Amino acid sequence: MKILIVDDEPHLRMLIQQTLEDLEDEGVELLTATNGEEALETIRTEEPNLVFLDVMMPKKNGFDVCDAVKNEFGLTHVHIVLLTAKGQEFDRLRGQQVGADLYMTKPFDPDALLAKAREVLGL
Length: 123
What we know:
The protein is α/β, with parallel strands linked by helices.
Protein backbone atom coordinates (compact mmCIF):
# COMPACT_ATOMS: atom_id res chain seq x y z
CA MET A 1 0.00 0.00 0.00
CA LYS A 2 1.18 3.50 -0.82
CA ILE A 3 0.34 7.01 0.33
CA LEU A 4 1.43 10.04 -1.68
CA ILE A 5 1.89 13.35 0.14
CA VAL A 6 1.81 16.38 -2.16
CA ASP A 7 2.63 19.84 -0.85
CA ASP A 8 4.96 22.57 -2.09
CA GLU A 9 5.79 23.61 1.50
CA PRO A 10 8.60 21.39 2.88
CA HIS A 11 7.58 21.78 6.54
CA LEU A 12 4.01 20.69 5.79
CA ARG A 13 5.20 17.69 3.77
CA MET A 14 7.41 16.71 6.69
CA LEU A 15 4.60 17.20 9.21
CA ILE A 16 2.27 14.93 7.23
CA GLN A 17 5.06 12.35 6.81
CA GLN A 18 5.73 12.37 10.55
CA THR A 19 2.00 12.03 11.22
CA LEU A 20 1.79 8.96 8.99
CA GLU A 21 5.17 7.32 9.66
CA ASP A 22 3.69 4.77 12.09
CA LEU A 23 1.91 3.27 9.08
CA GLU A 24 5.30 2.33 7.60
CA ASP A 25 5.54 -0.34 10.32
CA GLU A 26 2.34 -1.77 8.86
CA GLY A 27 3.76 -2.03 5.34
CA VAL A 28 2.66 1.34 3.97
CA GLU A 29 5.10 3.16 1.69
CA LEU A 30 5.12 6.96 1.97
CA LEU A 31 5.86 8.89 -1.23
CA THR A 32 6.16 12.66 -1.65
CA ALA A 33 5.84 15.21 -4.44
CA THR A 34 6.49 18.95 -4.37
CA ASN A 35 4.17 20.19 -7.13
CA GLY A 36 1.24 19.19 -9.30
CA GLU A 37 3.25 17.90 -12.26
CA GLU A 38 5.43 15.74 -10.01
CA ALA A 39 2.27 14.48 -8.30
CA LEU A 40 0.71 13.42 -11.62
CA GLU A 41 3.85 11.59 -12.67
CA THR A 42 4.09 9.78 -9.33
CA ILE A 43 0.39 8.85 -9.37
CA ARG A 44 0.71 7.55 -12.93
CA THR A 45 3.76 5.38 -12.15
CA GLU A 46 3.10 4.32 -8.54
CA GLU A 47 -0.73 4.30 -8.35
CA PRO A 48 -0.91 5.10 -4.63
CA ASN A 49 -3.96 3.98 -2.68
CA LEU A 50 -4.29 7.38 -1.03
CA VAL A 51 -3.16 10.90 -1.92
CA PHE A 52 -3.05 13.85 0.48
CA LEU A 53 -3.07 16.69 -2.04
CA ASP A 54 -2.45 20.37 -1.39
CA VAL A 55 -4.68 22.67 -3.45
CA MET A 56 -2.49 25.76 -3.87
CA MET A 57 0.69 24.64 -5.66
CA PRO A 58 2.94 25.69 -8.52
CA LYS A 59 2.77 24.09 -11.99
CA LYS A 60 -0.63 22.46 -11.42
CA ASN A 61 -3.01 23.06 -8.56
CA GLY A 62 -4.66 20.28 -6.58
CA PHE A 63 -8.00 20.66 -8.36
CA ASP A 64 -6.32 20.12 -11.75
CA VAL A 65 -4.33 17.15 -10.45
CA CYS A 66 -7.44 15.55 -8.95
CA ASP A 67 -9.42 16.14 -12.14
CA ALA A 68 -6.66 14.54 -14.25
CA VAL A 69 -6.35 11.50 -11.98
CA LYS A 70 -10.07 10.81 -11.65
CA ASN A 71 -11.34 11.88 -15.07
CA GLU A 72 -8.46 11.74 -17.57
CA PHE A 73 -6.54 8.75 -16.21
CA GLY A 74 -9.69 7.04 -14.90
CA LEU A 75 -7.93 6.10 -11.64
CA THR A 76 -11.13 6.29 -9.62
CA HIS A 77 -9.75 3.79 -7.07
CA VAL A 78 -7.08 6.32 -5.99
CA HIS A 79 -8.53 8.00 -2.88
CA ILE A 80 -7.78 11.74 -2.94
CA VAL A 81 -7.97 14.02 0.10
CA LEU A 82 -7.61 17.70 -0.79
CA LEU A 83 -5.79 19.75 1.86
CA THR A 84 -6.25 23.48 1.72
CA ALA A 85 -6.09 26.64 3.76
CA LYS A 86 -9.24 27.69 1.94
CA GLY A 87 -12.37 26.63 3.75
CA GLN A 88 -14.81 28.45 1.48
CA GLU A 89 -17.82 26.55 0.22
CA PHE A 90 -16.83 27.38 -3.39
CA ASP A 91 -13.58 25.45 -2.99
CA ARG A 92 -15.34 22.54 -1.32
CA LEU A 93 -17.77 22.33 -4.26
CA ARG A 94 -14.91 22.59 -6.76
CA GLY A 95 -13.23 19.69 -4.96
CA GLN A 96 -16.37 17.61 -5.30
CA GLN A 97 -16.69 18.49 -8.98
CA VAL A 98 -13.20 17.21 -9.80
CA GLY A 99 -13.80 13.98 -7.88
CA ALA A 100 -12.03 14.52 -4.55
CA ASP A 101 -13.03 11.93 -1.98
CA LEU A 102 -12.56 14.27 0.98
CA TYR A 103 -11.72 17.89 1.68
CA MET A 104 -9.71 18.82 4.81
CA THR A 105 -8.90 22.38 5.85
CA LYS A 106 -5.47 23.42 7.13
CA PRO A 107 -4.41 23.53 9.83
CA PHE A 108 -5.53 19.92 10.11
CA ASP A 109 -5.63 17.71 13.15
CA PRO A 110 -2.82 15.13 12.80
CA ASP A 111 -4.94 12.51 14.59
CA ALA A 112 -7.78 13.04 12.11
CA LEU A 113 -5.33 12.71 9.20
CA LEU A 114 -3.93 9.44 10.56
CA ALA A 115 -7.43 8.12 11.29
CA LYS A 116 -8.51 8.92 7.73
CA ALA A 117 -5.45 7.15 6.30
CA ARG A 118 -6.15 4.06 8.44
CA GLU A 119 -9.81 4.08 7.37
CA VAL A 120 -9.04 4.36 3.65
CA LEU A 121 -6.32 1.67 3.77
CA GLY A 122 -8.38 -0.61 6.00
CA LEU A 123 -5.75 -0.73 8.77
